[in-house]
Amino acid sequence: MAKIPLEDSFADVINKAQRGLKVSDEDLAARADVSKADLAAVKGGKPIIAVIRRVARHLRLAPNPLESLARKEWYPEQPVFPRGFAMFNTAYEDMTVNSYLVWDPKSKVAAVFDTGASAQGLLDLVDAEKLKVHYIFITHAHEDHVADLDTLAKRTKAEIWSHELEPLSRPDARTFKEGAYFHVGDIAIKTLLTSGHSPGMTTFYITGLSWPLAIVGDAVFSSSMGGSQTAFEEQYRLNVEKIFTLPRDTVIAPGHGPLTTVAQEKHHNPFYASRTEKSNLADIKQKNDPTHV
């Protein structure tokens, strides 16, 4: 199977961070002590490593993972679920978008997360496995994530749910608050508000499969995070508080790009690796402090 490309390039990451932190090109060039021409070249996709590393430090990005992204040196190791989980990657305009199917192998009860551009492959698997879809959960209501909701709803007759801050424009949709629990057979699903990219962006934390699973929508991508024009700090903070505090072996299932894990992103994601490195350094210093009890 062909690899699903990473959602963002190093230039995308730089542009997202700069836009989110509201740093102008002139200010960034001055802070990083690089020429405006070199900065423009990097933002346009030219991998000038020295400039990339200088810029990273002034955008709260970890230089080593950003350089690795620029050199195309890393791709997340893909976790394997023997049963009960499937990912679907479908083309939507000039990109691809993910949807997910989770089911309890014993009861055959299932839940869908987002719809992708087309739900046909998902529905084919539902039929093949003789599953009963009880829920359709929406991470957020952007068009690429709900594009085939009508088909899914008609074929499965499932309950449709989204966060109360992310209502869907249809009379059969229901809303939940943060911290709501759902069950699919022996599988438990907890809702976590990870807003910023959209007001009600929800991460669904799922236990009972081979690995803990977080279906995160556009909150986090492998090596990146979702963009936000108005709530970047909120999104960054909630990602740290709600996603990066999950167990390290938690599989991150994003709205775009490949699967990854909390552990891998703590090491390879330019937005969050720098925070992890600082946290680890602080822990080491504290442990070595003779006054610390």
Major sheet summary line: 6 strands, mixed
Fraction of residues in helix: 25-40%
Number of helices: 11
Question: Architecture of the largest domain in CATH?
Answer: 4-Layer Sandwich
Task: Give the uncertain stretches in residue-range form.
Answer: 277-293
- What's the total number of strands? 14
| SSE string, helices as H and strands as E | HHHHHEEEHEHHEEEEEEEEHEEHH
- Total domain modules: 2
CATH class of the largest domain: Alpha Beta
Strand order of the largest sheet: 1-2-3-4-5-6
Q: What's the overall average pLDDT, rounded?
A: 92
Looking at the structure, the CATH topology of the largest domain is Metallo-beta-lactamase, Chain A
Assign an overall shape: elongated
Measured on Cα atoms, how large is the radius of gyration? 20 Å
Strand content: 15-25%
Report, as a whole number of angstroms, the end-to-end distance.
Answer: 52 Å
CATH superfamily of the largest domain: Ribonuclease Z/Hydroxyacylglutathione hydrolase-like
Question: What order do the helices and strands come in, and which of them pair?
Answer:
Layout: H1 10-21, H2 25-32, H3 36-43, H4 49-57, H5 63-71, E1 85-92, E2 95-103, E3 109-113, H6 120-129, E4 132-137, H7 143-146, H8 149-156, E5 159-163, E6 173-176, E7 181-184, E8 187-193, E9 202-207, E10 213-217, E11 220-221, E12 224-225, H9 232-243, E13 251-254, E14 260-261, H10 262-268, H11 270-288
Parallel strand pairs: 3-4, 4-5, 5-6, 10-13
Antiparallel strand pairs: 1-2, 2-3, 7-8, 8-9, 9-10, 11-12, 13-14
